[in-house]
Amino acid sequence: MQKLQEQMAEQEELILAAQRDRDQAQAESQRQQSLSEASMNEVKEVLQALEELALSYEQKTQEVLSKDRDNEALTEELTRKKVTAQLLHSAI
Questions:
Q1: Sign of the C-alpha dihedral, residues 3, 5, 7, 10?
Q2: Is the pTM of this model over 0.70?
Q3: pLDDT digits (tens, 9 = 90+) for 15-63
Q4: Number of C-alpha atoms within 13 angstroms, CB side, residue 31?
Q5: What is the spatial distance between Cα 83 and Cα 92, in angstroms, rounded to a whole number?
Q6: Buried residues in 49-70 as b, exposed as e (16+ CB within 10 A)
Q7: Cα Rg, the chain, nearest whole Å
Q8: Four-residue CA torsion sign, 66, 72, 74, 76
Q9: What DSSP designation does 92 have?
């Protein structure tokens, strides 16, 4: 009878140890899941920021191209006016 009680006590200890291990594993799994979700959210935020930067870059590029065209047009106009002024000045 004593041996049976000892075996039952050992079994209870093993069951308790297994439950503690399971609880620890579940807690670690939940911690890892939380970390994973936080990392995924951070990645989403970084991707969103990159998309915004790309759009901003594209807008700035278009603005620069537009200003370049405006500058070219102004340079051509200035050149024409200089030629006209030189012709008028030489005619006088």
A1: negative
A2: no
A3: 999 999 999 999 999 999 999 999 999 999 999 999 999 999 999 999 9
A4: 6
A5: 14
A6: eeeeeeeeeeeeeeeeeeeeee
A7: 39
A8: negative
A9: -
Cα–Cα distance measured from residue 50 to residue 54, given in angstroms and rounded to the nearest whole number: 6
Integer angstrom CA distances of residue 59 from 17, 34, 51, 53, 71: 63, 38, 12, 10, 18
CA distance 48 to 54: 10
pLDDT band at 80 (very low <50, low <70, confident <90, very high): very high
Tell me the helix, strand and coil percentages in the chain, rounded to 5: 100, 0, 0
The tokens for 88 are: 């008028």
Q: The tokens of 11 are what?
A: 């079994």
Task: Take residue 83 and report the two structure tokens written for it.
Answer: 């030629």
